[in-house]
Each structure stands twice: as C-alpha cells, then as structure tokens.
Amino acid sequence: FFKIVRPVSVHAILLAAGAGSRLGYPKASLHVHGKWMLPEIVRNLRIGGAAQVTLVLSDAALTSIADLGSTEADQEVLNPHPEDGRTGSILAAAAKVHVDDALLVHSCDIPLLRPEVVAQLIHAWRKQESPGKSLVRPVTPGGRGGHPLLVGSELAKELRLFKPNQPLRELLKLHRKSTLDLPILNDPGPFLDVNTTEQLALLESLIKP
Q1: With the C-alpha atoms ordered 104, 93, 129, 179, is the resulting torsion angle positive or negative?
Q2: What is the rounded distance in angstroms from the CA atom of residue 115 to the CA atom of residue 118?
Q3: How do strand 102-107 and strand 149-151 relate by DSSP bridges?
C-alpha cells in the first residue's frame, strides 16, 4: 500500500476583530481613498498563494461591515473575546484550519499587502530545509519586522497551545534560529499599519486614489 502524502497547504488567517478605538471605528471596515480594504487583502493573500483565507471578526466588526458586501474569505470566524488579544483571534481561526497546514497570519490594519510579497514569503518558506519548523517574516532593509508571518505546520501546532493573551512575538523569540527574515525592498506595504486617523492620512498620502 502506498501512503498518500498530503501536500502542505498555506492557510491565511486574517485578523479583523480589532475595535479600532484610536481610529474611531472597527478596523474591519477600514477604507483607503474610499475603497474597502478587507476583501482586497483577502484577494491579495489568495493571489499570492494562500490556499484558503479565514477571516476573524468580532461582533462589533461584523456589524460595521454588514452593509459593505462580501469579504471574499473562505470562512469567517467570530472571536467573542477580542479584548483578550490578537492571539485569541488566531486560536479561534486555527481551530477551523487543518492541523497539518502552515499558517500565514496577517492583520487587516496593514492594508497595503501586495500578492508579490505573499508569494515571496511562501517561496522562501518552501525552500527551507525544514519548512514545518520554520518561520518567515518580511523585514525592512534595516531589519524591522513586518507582516504577514508564515508559521510552519509544526510550529503552528505549538502556537495552538498559546493562551489568548500570549503575544505572537513569543513564538518568534522561542524560535529565533528557525526564523527567516526576508528583506523586502521598495515596498512599505508590509510595514505600514493603521491605528489612528493620522496614520490613515499618512497612508493615503503615499498612494494614488
């Protein structure tokens, strides 16, 4: 008998349960130059190579996007306690993801993610000697980390044991030697987050409407 080896898929988890208290509204409904960014991020994750995209929302986030149309995600998961931290949202999504999948974790408040960056991360990850035990993240030429973070399947199993309020950066600290920092040149997208109206104005000033 031949054992069928299931190819490792990359499953994207898009975090959009944030209250956006400093922004003034839930981040799931973020618009840039009048364009709703959530389905755009979903599309770019998929075009870049994610086999599936699971979107995590809160009750408030769900209400804020109720009249905006389809998110285009493969599935939507509700985090009933988003105040516990982003890891809680990751855990809510991971419970719906195949245990052997790699996870590509991104946040909706980093809206300018291009599919080319996603493709670069996945390509670099697949080339690792032990992809299942590897982490890959984009970094600036100066070494500042960005998003998304690609978590190999073995480390994803470890992540599933985290507490909801346990920061994701602890996984990076635990496995620093297994982390590939992938320099991204001439593309600020993975490093520009929107937490305030001022940051949104800066973001909009950098791109054409």
Answers
A1: positive
A2: 5
A3: antiparallel
Nearest to 60 by CA among 42, 75, 80, 32: 80
How far CA 62 is from CA of 55, 79, 201, 207, in Å, comes to 11, 10, 24, 28
Confidence of residue 44 (pLDDT cuts 50, 70, 90): very high
Q: The tokens of 111 are what?
A: 């809206």
Q: Per-residue pLDDT tens for 92-128?
A: 999 999 999 999 999 999 999 999 999 999 999 999 9
Distance CA 99, CA 96 (A): 9
Q: Rounded distance, CA 141 to CA 161, Å?
A: 33
The model carries a pTM of 0.94
31-to-92, 137, 180 alpha-carbon distances in Å? 25, 25, 32
- CB contact at 8 A, 184 and 120: yes
